[in-house]
Amino acid sequence: MKHNTKVLVLLAVMMAFLVGTDSRALGMGKVVLTDYPSLDASFLSALDWRFVGPFRGGRVLAVAGYPDDPLLYYFGAAHGGVWKSTDAGRHWRNVSDGFFKFPAVGALDVSLSDPKVIFAGTGEGLPRQFISPGDGVYKSTDGGETWTNVGLRETRHISRLRIHPTNPDIVYVAAMGDMFGPNPERGVYRTTDGGKTWKRILYKDESTGAVDLSIDPTNPKVIIASLNHHVTYPWDEESGGPSTGLFKTTDGGDSWTDITRNPGMPEGLIGKICVAISPARPNRVYAFIEADKGEGGIYRSDDGGSTWQRMHQDPGKMEIPNSYNHITADPQDPDVVYIQPISGFWKSTDGGRTFKLQPTENWDHHALWIDPNDPNRMIDGGAAVTLNGGESWSSLENQPTADLLSLAVDDQEPYWIYASQNDNSHIAIPSRTDDRSIEWVHYLLIPAGEGGQTAVKPDGSVVYACDRARMFRFDRETGQSQDISVWPEVEFGTAVEDVKYRFYYSFPVLLSPHDPRVLYTAAQYVFRSTNEGISWDQISSDLTRNRREVMGSISGGPISSNASSLFHVSLIRAIAESPLQEGELWVGTDDSTVQVSRDGGSSWLDVSPPDLPEWTTITAIEVSPHQRGTVYISGERHRVSDRTPYLYKTTDHGNTWQRITHGIRKNDFSWLTSGIGYRKWPT
Q1: Residue 96: closest CA among 118, 113, 114, 112
Q2: Largest CA distance in the chain
Q3: pTM of the predicted model, to two decimals?
């Protein structure tokens, strides 16, 4: 079968389009701006977007319901906005599209006194390397049908939002702020006029954000909030420090008391704290605490936080606390409490002493809402709804909110689309079917983990799926999945300087456009296989800046390790081969480097744009299929608190570069760049 495919590729620049800029004189080795002719919009009039899926729930950080309506629920997706169900999770409808400028939702609450009033805090509130920022708080007064931004636009990441139980004009917001550097917008905020004005009422410093808030529903002037020192770097993550703590107010936030070191609390260094006041017994407070010296665990106070005792300690529940460790108290039974660590969804019926793992639909658990009038009604992050206390849950297979980390297409008719889904697995779906819709029965689950890139043979027969440092060859005909990793040893828990090959969490994989039997991948080196991954040849030296000075320790700390390949640095993040010239290879690193080989990897030339700032990650490279020497690259620096887009074009194999970011908003950092091209395979 002849494989001549015209590949239509999306151009995504974190919610921005790529257009031309001002002109300046070209100069050898200089970055210049250039003019481009405007595009006649009528050329695009024949193109329509057609949604194809997948309908598989993605990462959800915020959920809510309403006590007087057992069928009404909302969730906020990490990258998909706010969704509403009026039939207990059987169907979901997006209600924020067209209103939110940033679709990442970190917090959500429905007013108990007026169900038409909903507040949503944007920006993912759980730290990780690739999280999306927001632009503050949105408010709806008609049950989510329309929304208005009501401020706090520079908080970037909001982790919790609570509406006063009897006054919908009083709202509290816990803002983590910019997790990748100092940010003066961190802390706890309050509005008393429905979002017209905001006042920061709890603050420590520019590196300490607000993590959680819990309000006593019987006395809303009583609030307990937690702050945590947290900063993420390209190579490391800090969580915990002297500014971290637990704070209580009895006057609605006008004044606060530090209760971090009250009797019974950990004596050593403290990190992330999640907190829950029991609505059934307001003097009972639960806290899930990250602490050093083995003092972390589930703590309980029976006197409103004056004294504490540790009820439960399990190291298996303390891993990666920054992304987990949520705690929720049952609204009617003071001895029932739920926790959501990395190991699952757990329930205690004895005041936090012991916990039993609960069956749920979701893999990773980041949110929970319980009906204050009927604790059998819950919605879990994912999002799944239960009406019978967790005996059964609604499906996740009705929500098009998957966070996809990669995209690949084959040449079948109709063509198939392949991707890896965060918090789930790799997945493949057809672009259309002969049925009335593209449904779950048409999907193909690929046995590989959540991370990594995806590549596929043109006929769709073989899929290459990456996950962290591993790569798998999946044969669709036989169903066999074979580990074809360059280096099979799992090196998590090892300092980066001791890792043999620094593969990133979503490291690249590329099938040659000239020969689908040739496969490329990369760590700090480029590797090539000519036998579909059975063996690999290293075809380059270290093409990065090899920043050894930041590789000496295991990532994470000062309390909890986060020894993940997310924190491997000085590695290759993008590979491309010219569709016009076999063996012309381009790579981009996470430390401001672009290199090219025009002889199949025998020699390499550093052609990095000279104005690339330190720690620019090259996220994508597109080599023109129409003109030799023309290449587009996309770079970004969100991991060092810079949201500037870095998009470039060269027409001379990298000797000179043109910056092409005119028309893109200042804070829309770039992630992908691509175009329309042809792929020619051997017959």
Answers
A1: 118
A2: 76
A3: 0.90
